[in-house]
Amino acid sequence: MISALFFLQFNSLRNRLRARLRRLKRPKYLIGAIIGGLYFIFYFSFLITGPRPGVSGNSDGSPISAGWGETIGAILLFAVVLLNWVLPNERAALAFTEAEIAFLFPAPITRRGLIHYKLVRSQIGILFSVIFLTLIWGRWRTGGHIWISALGWWVILSTLSLHTLASSFARTILFDRGITNWKRRGIILGGVVAILGVVFMLGRNHLPPWPSNPDADPREYLNWLDAALTTGVIPYLLLPFRLVVAPYFAADAASFIWALGPALAIMALHYILVIRADVAFEEASITYSQKLATRLATMRERRSGVPSAPKKGRRAPFNLAPTGLPSLAFLWKNLILAGANFSPRFFLRVFLLLFIGGALVMQHGLGDSPWPLFVTMLCVMFFMMSLFIGPSLLRVDFRADLNVADQLMLYPLPGWQIVLGEILAPVAILTAVQWLLILAVAMFFTLPEVAVHTTGDTTVTQLSAQNHAIPLELRVGFALAAAILAPAIDLIMLIIPNAVALLLPSWVRFDKNAPRGFENFGQMIILAIGQLLVMAVALAPAGLVFWVIELLASLALDPALATLLAALAAATMLVVEAATAIYILGHAFERFDVSAETTN
Amino acid sequence: MIEIAGLTKLYGEFVAVNNLSFSVRGGEVLGLVGPNGAGKTTTLRCLAGIIPPSRGSIVINGCDLLQNPVGAKAQLAFFTDEPRLFDYLTVWQHLVFVARIYQVADYIPRGEGLLAELELSDKRDALPAELSRGMKQKLVIACGLLHSPKAMYFDEPLTGLDPLGIRKMKESITRRAREGGAVILSSHLLHLVEEICTHLLILKGGQMVAYGSLEEITRRFSVEPGANLEDVFFRATSDEAAPVPPPPSDSPPPPPILPT
To answer: Is the distance from CB of A240 to CB of A70 less than 8 angstroms?
Structure first.
């Protein structure tokens, strides 16, 4: 039976690896894998050859005792174990995939067989964690051996894994005997507090004095803690945990082998307890696996940036007439997807709030209060973020509809109408947010007065907002210029990720069949760099137009008008670019082969 | 109504559909059958304009799907085996959205009529997640029929329906054909095909192995009188059966047989 389970594990791994290797025949995955692989090679090369880590056990010249790292490790392990007993509130449940449950649970396999399978499977995750932690922690770089670090981590993680399983079995047994979660937590925490109290009472006379000087060297406090943890009965209480972490902290091969025996004995004890426990975990495991699958799906959904499906129907943002530009149907649909947070009613409320607040500030002023300046800075920051990060986060566009691309292909619309329609909702939402921010800046912005006070040798610079408001016509001019430019820039910024979704759909997928690993990571790096380049190329001509017109117009017009004129010209340039891009992408959409593009 | 000539779909070197030529006139229901992997769904997806064919022409009610996709798509509806809905739009919002896409000015009376016919009126404000599979299927049908398509493709239309839903679906398909629509129905359920189809196209490995009226095909592949479609299907798709050469382009399509 066990051999069948090993067969399943081995073949699952092998087939997954084969599928990935086979995928590398396609250039888009091969390039991604090369870039991703190079990134990891450079990253781990830096870890291996880079500066030494701060935590370095006993070899960093610290005057603290040689067992310091071991003691801290034991305390951390104790904390994790304690949390394992206190936090969980459910019956024992082993995490199986839904396929494993379907095949293994009805099969003639004993509970012990299932536990063995689970233990073997957990070893794969543990081995990856061991490699990662060994490289990240880098203790071996401070004089130890890499194999000692790796085996040390393996002992710690494997014992912890077994202990987690054993504690979940114990929890189930306690449940069956009528001991509720809170009763169990009370007993455990009460017991720990009582033991610590007794330990403190017994050991307080043996403790060195607490450093009395408040400016004492931090090492004096560490020395005190070291003494507290290594005298009296505490070392004996920490002994089991210390034994588990001891192999990791072994300085050489001989001390490692010496430390390994007791650690393996503790691990074996856990193994025996787990194997001999006759605890029914099947039902809870099924529930747990379903929860796990739901959680994974939610995580993928969140990662994709597409809002989750609502629990009940949402109000439409506006009445959609049956005739007119069909693209507006996509705007309407995607605004419903975006949800209540971005409804016109919400924006109207914020607008009114801002307008009334701003009018009051403009009329009465806030004296030398720093608030207007603070609000302005905050709004400018959010404005910039909305321009450059907003399009990546707000995915209520083609990226949300990739999974229904075949449905979109059915619609009797030219491609450009679908592309335009898909992009409209995020453009509308971002523009509304940006216009509110522009309004806030226009109403609250004041030029700070800089006051310098000198007291003896100290010079203090203070900012004040009083009486330095910018003239209204300048504010209105600049605000209108920003308001004209914002939607045009949004349009360009949203076309870029949507073009990626259309031209390289498998690179932006987040469903369960989406590629993972090196190739996906490399693809993400390439996409990020590519999007930056395209953005620079797309925005540069408009920037040039803006600069030239501003320069020429300012010779004849006042600054506000000159800026407004330059913004109009730059926005026109951006809209022309966007229209061309939408037209080209529309053609690409009409030739989009769903079957070829969305398969790995 | 639906005229297909030399339809071929290649995936790299793999031939999914090879040189299919057939036609479906108004009032006809063409059953598209074949073993798994025969190319039925690929054929339907090509006919619906979801995937581009590698070769061949598809004409829907006089509009070439490749030359004038917008005009051709405006006259067809494709009902997939798995209902594809927007999980954030309610039943009625789906109809509003589709009405704008297809420019259906009188969508309100049409939509209400369809919801009543499909017994979805009381689910008007429900989201797809609140609907059973059968109800989702009905909503897809309501959306597809809102613009009164001339050509309709059904891919495994009975999947997930209860007995009452199956009966209503069969009635709905035959009614659309009686009203002059051209219907292509792909299914593994041979009794369904036998019951409501007037014509049959049997595919195997992307090749057409039989095409004609139900009676013609039954006659051609029957070895004894009274053979049913299942016997015909197994004979037609057995390894001995030779593929049918495509009919010459000037040959008249088989006459329509309206269901009685």
So the answer is: no
